[in-house]
Amino acid sequence: xxxxxxxxxxxxxxxxxxxxxxxxxxxxxxxxxxxxxxxxxxxxxxxxxxxxxxxxxxxxxxxxxxxxxxxxxxxxxxxxxxxxxxxxxxxxxxxxxxxxxxxxxxxxxxxxxxxxxxxxxxxxxxxxxxxxxxxxxxx
Length: 139
Known about the structure:
The chain has helices spanning about 5-10, 20-40, 45-65, 75-80, 80-85, 90-110, 115-139; strands at about 15, 70. It is built from 7 helices and 2 strands, in the order H-E-H-H-E-H-H-H-H. Helix content is about 75%, strand content about 5%. It is mostly helical.
C-alpha cells in the first residue's frame, strides 16, 4: 500500500520501496513479541531489558513499514514513519525515538542511563505497538 508521505521519503533517499513480504512481517512480529517477553524478565539486567524492549520496538515498527512496502536503512526512520504507517501521534513515536538516542549512546559511546520506569513505560508502549501492527496485518 503506497503512502504519499512515504513515497516522498523514497524520492529523497530516506526509504526504499520494496514489495510487501507477508512472511517477513510475520517473522518481525514474532521477533518483537519474543524480545518484549525478554524485556519483561526481571532477572535480566536493566540494561539488558532496555536493549530487549528497544529491539522489540524496532522490529514491530519495521514490520509496519514493511507491510506498507517500504524499507529503511536507518533505525530512527522506522520510528518516525509510525505517524504514517500506523497513524501514531508524535507524542507516542518520540518516546521510541528517544530510546533510539539512548541506544546509540550505549552502542557507540558505552554510556547508558536508563531507569526502571523508562523500561516499564517502553514495555507498555511496545505492547500497544505490536497490537497496532497486528491489527494492520489482519485487515
